[in-house]
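Holo model, 2'-deoxycytidine-5'-triphosphate. Inputs:
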Amino acid sequence: MAAVTATPIRRIAHLDMDAFYASVELLRYPQLKGLPVVIGGARRKVDEAVRDVPEGGTLADIPLHTFPLLKDYVGRGVITTATYPARQFGIGSAMGLMKAAKLCPQAIILPVDFDEYRRYSRRFKQVITEIAPVMEDRGVDEVYIDFTDVAGGQREGGRVLARLIQKSIFEATGLTCSIGVAPNKLIAKMASEFNKPNGISVIFEDDLQSRIWPLPCRKVNGIGPKADEKLQRHEIRTIGDLALRERDWLIANFGKATGAWMHEVAWGRDERPVVTESEPVSMSRETTFDRDLHAVRHRAELGAIFTRLCEKVAEDLQRKGYVGKTIGIKLRYDDFKIATRDQTIDHFTADAKAIRRVAGQCLKRVPLERPLRLLGVRVGALMKAGELGADGTKPAGGTGAGRPSQGDGRGGSARTASLF
Ligand code: DCP
Ligand code: MG
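Output:
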């Protein structure tokens, strides 16, 4: 009897955690389950709620009435995410907290705790790679997974494996996620939203017309508000509308690359592989101040924030095992204009003091008359610390590490103070 071996068909999953930051917070405050909760505003300092932990109790015992409410919030922070009960009030990511307070004054507000989210991010990704090793990291709460050759990856179009991953993540972390499984990344990304939260959607090639074409063009990862506006002006609202336009027409109106890409996308075609390890190009930390700060009047405060940012970037680099040689800064002024400067040094580093020193020199090249809203520090031209020569330079034969210059482009002569 001849053995029949079916060639596996390409099955790609996109997994996205549900209300990620908020769900992580609810793990330590389970008493908030089912309530409208938003995450945003200040970073976690001393947790105000924690002060009310009853004698011998835990965070889970903090009485509900002691949690801060959105209606009492004053400031200009934005929401990073909101629980699903809060979303029913029209609240969502990137909305100003004061505006959200008008929509749902009784929502509970919690500060962000990036370290905690990163810990959970690492945990759920580890669960996935133990089951399905070909995983592409797409940020703190989402990944692509190649199901094609994984055990169970073909059963029910990938639903069986998706269920296993969902269950394993939940058991390991207490968090839920939503998964789309499809012939490629493009469709998988759209599909993971179909049954949020805690859902699975399985899409086959034949489902293109019924499931994908009715969606608005904005659902395509890569069609942003500007492109969408232009498409709308041409009466193209859905992906189906897009599919019915001639490829040449799209190229004539959107340019060669974009037009051709739009055509492919509308017909559900995408050959991009799932890339297991992406090397970071740079690492950065930035902070938006609670109020505008001025280089002279708030010199000490700014200096401390600046040093802290450099330490954080250094910690990130060291934890992830990278060193870099291009060090840069970013400022946003009170008029929202952005200035960046960077400088490339002759050796690789992950040292907070070295980063601080070079970043300080960059700061001397930007105008500092206007008050500042935001300050950021970046280290680029990275390489793995393990590949470094003993003298802090790259061993011969390595690839080039970016441009060897002061990359600001504009003269930064106007400065008011040598503060940093
Ligand atoms: N995030 C943010 N600012 C934004 C959008 C998101 O800080 N403008 C953060 C908070 C989210 C996390 O990134 O928890 C993941 O983003 P998602 O878009 O996946 O949103 P959620 O996971 O919160 O919700 P959903 O269930 O819709 O995926
Ligand atoms: Mg998410």
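The chain has four domains: 12-16+116-208, 20-113, 222-266, 282-387. The mean pLDDT is 89.
Archived with the compound record.
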